[in-house]
C-alpha cells in the first residue's frame, strides 16, 4: 500500500452487520499494509476541535517567558508546556538526531479519581493532575472537552480493531478502561534560522502506545514510510483524523499489524520564516498493568517474537530514551 486509505466509520457506528464487517476489514488491510488510515464519520463535533485550536493558538502566541511558567515543576512530571529543544523523537527508535523543532502542551484526563489504582505508588507514575495557565481563559475547558471526545472515539476504534483481528468486539474493553493516555498539542513554530543537519520538526519515529488519533491543520510536512521504504505525504485536516497503529498494538499482534515510521519535515526555507503548524495528538495507551503479549492466533505456528511487557513499563522506557536518559527495555519494561 503506497497511500493512506480513508475509512468512513459511520457504517460501524450506525450501520448493519455487513457495514460493520466492511469497516473492520478496511482497518485490517490498512493496519497490515501501512499502519495508517484516515477516518471520517467519526461523530466528533467540529466545534470541539475549533475551540481547542483557538485556545492553543492563543497560548502559543504568548511570549516564551509566559509560556515557561507552565513548564513542569519537576523532571518526572509530564504535564504542561515543553519548549523547543526538549525532545528528539527519533531517539525512541535508536536514532541520534538534534532536538525536534517543536514546542508542545501535554495534558491528560480532566480529573484523576481518588482511588488507589490512580493515586497509589504505581498509579502515581502514570496519572497526573493537569496544569493550565490563567490565559487564555477557557483553555482547560476546551482541552477537557476534546479529551472526552477522543476517549469515546478510541473505544470505538478499539472495538473495530478487535473485530478486524477476529476477536470478540469487547476484547480490549477491560484493557483500556483505566488507560494512561496523554494528549499533546504540537506547535511547530516559524523558523528564523536554518535547522541543524538532520534536524526536523519531528524526527522519524514510531508511536509507543496502542493507537494514535491525530488532528492536524492543513499543511504539508507529515510523512509515513511504506513497507517498501518510500516516504509518502499524509494530508492532514483538523476535521478528518489520521490514525496510526502504535508499538504496543504491533507487539500484541506479533508484527501482523505495523507501527510505521513517520516524521514531520521542515518547510522549504523560503516558507519557513512565515510557516507554522499545529496538530493535536491523542496517544491512546492501555491501562498501565495491561500485559501486552501475543494475541492468540497472531503468531501462527511460530513462537511469539516478543516477551510479554506491561503497558506502563513500556511507555516509561520510551519516554526515557527520547530524553536521552533511559535504560534498556530489559531493565525498565519487563513483565512482572
Main sheet summary: 8 strands, mixed
Which CATH class?
Mainly Beta
Helix content: 25-40%
Average pLDDT confidence is 91
**H/E order of the elements?**
EHHEHHEEHHHEEEEEEHEHEEEHH
What do these coordinates show?
30% of the residues lie in helices and 18% in strands. With 336 residues, it is of the alpha+beta class. The chain has one domain: B-lactam Antibiotic, Isopenicillin N Synthase, Chain (Jelly Rolls). The strands form three sheets. An eight-stranded mixed beta sheet has the order 1-2-10-7-12-5-4-3. α2 packs across α6 and α3 crosses α6 (139-164). The protein is globular and about 55 Å long. Mean pLDDT is 91; it is low at 324-336.
What's this entry about, in short?
The protein has helices spanning 10-14, 17-33, 46-60, 64-68, 116-119, 139-164, 173-176, 247-252, 269-272, 311-322, 329-332; strands at 6-8, 36-40, 80-82, 103-107, 182-188, 202-205, 211-216, 222-225, 231-233, 241-245, 262-264, 277-284, 291-292, 309-310. With 336 residues, the protein is an alpha+beta fold.
Task: Set down the secondary structure blueprint.
Elements: E1 6-8, H1 10-14, H2 17-33, E2 36-40, H3 46-60, H4 64-68, E3 80-82, E4 103-107, H5 116-119, H6 139-164, H7 173-176, E5 182-188, E6 202-205, E7 211-216, E8 222-225, E9 231-233, E10 241-245, H8 247-252, E11 262-264, H9 269-272, E12 277-284, E13 291-292, E14 309-310, H10 311-322, H11 329-332
Parallel strand pairs: 1-2
Antiparallel strand pairs: 2-10, 3-4, 4-5, 5-12, 6-11, 7-10, 7-12, 8-9, 8-11, 13-14
Helix pairs in contact: 2-6, 3-6
